[in-house]
Amino acid sequence: MNIDNALYTLNIAPDARQLTVFIDGEAIPQSRPKIATRGKNGVPLPHAIAYYKNASIYYRQQCEYCIKQAVQKSGIFFKDVALFCEVYIFLPVPASKSKKFKAAVDVGAEFPKVKPDCDNLFKNITDAAEGLAFDTDSRIVSVNIHKRYTNGAPFAVLRLTEVNEEITVLPSFVKLYRESKKSRG
């Protein structure tokens, strides 16, 4: 089939290597660095210093600890392979929510449509895994991120799966994109 008429997706073999990591605690998003130009008591610093919020640092350390444990137990480290990365974030239901809302969470009918953003949560977890579970995050070729509520203790799951080079052909977005460009002039 012509590449113009196909969208290629990942084909994961049944015997593909897979690493699953469970991370306890409420997920904290990757914070943006803060820049300090003054030290304690307003004394100017010789150069600017970048730092991160403590909560983000502590959560990343928790991720690193859990990832190290999982890698040691499984013996899996991904090097020079394409990876499919799934991250599942389970956030606590706010205390202000009703019993009806909490019951809906149990059946998957309510979603956390609030901050923190999925991409920032994903970034903190995958940055922690770099060098511990895989050599570089540029190996990640496809991602799925899921953010859900839980009535229990909050946690996150990181699942890394080795991807085969073989592909499956699906209807084309490439062709649709090119057609839309022609129609737009």
Biggest β-sheet description: 4 strands, mixed
| DSSP helix fraction | 25-40%
- List how many beta strands DSSP finds: 8
Question: Which strand-content bin applies to the residues?
Answer: 25-35%
Shape: globular
How are the strands ordered across the major sheet? 2-7-5-6
Structural class label: alpha+beta
| Beginning-to-end CA distance, first to last residue | 27 Å
Give the helices and strands as they follow along the chain.
EEEEHEHHEEEH
Instruction: Calculate the mean pLDDT score and round it.
Output: 84
Descriptive notes:
It is built from four helices and eight strands. By secondary structure, the protein is of the alpha+beta class. The strands form three sheets. It has a four-stranded mixed β-sheet. The protein has a two-stranded antiparallel ribbon with strand order 1-8. The protein has a two-stranded antiparallel ribbon with strand order 3-4.
List the helices and strands and how they pair.
Blueprint: E1 7-10, E2 18-24, E3 34-38, E4 44-51, H1 54-74, E5 83-92, H2 99-106, H3 118-129, E6 140-150, E7 155-162, E8 167-170, H4 173-184
Parallel strand pairs: 5-6
Antiparallel strand pairs: 1-8, 2-7, 3-4, 5-7
Helix pairs in contact: 1-3
Tags for this entry?
single chain; 185 residues; alpha+beta; four-stranded mixed sheet; two-stranded antiparallel sheet; 4 helices; 8 strands; globular; disordered N terminus
Question: What is shown here, in short?
Answer:
The chain has 185 residues and is an alpha+beta fold.
